[in-house]
Design brief:
Helices cover about 85% and strands about 0% of the residues. It has about 120 residues and is mainly alpha-helical.
Amino acid sequence: MKIILAIFVGGGLGSVARYLTGRWMLSIFPSVFPLGTLIANLLSCFLLGIFIWLMQKGVVQGIWIPLLTIGFCGGYSTFSTFSLETLMLITEGKWTWAILNIGVSLAGCIFVLFALSKMLK
């Protein structure tokens, strides 16, 4: 039960962080491109990489592992919003933006984790 509660708390905090990131990005860079979701997903991958590294070093242990990884990073990243925003771009005929969103999101998130795995050995 403690693990479920930890995931719940982490997920709530991650979801609020995602919302705030989206609002912040929109206030700085109002655009048709869903930059807030992209930044949240990239940051979530970055944080997940850091948390995994800290787990391997024994710094993050116990209940903190599901809270930070499944909970916070799961709540902070958002495949569903990414998919909806991409679909909206497609239905609005903004194919270039949609393809750019797909490419940058997927390649960027994988690159962030790859780069961290090389840097934090």
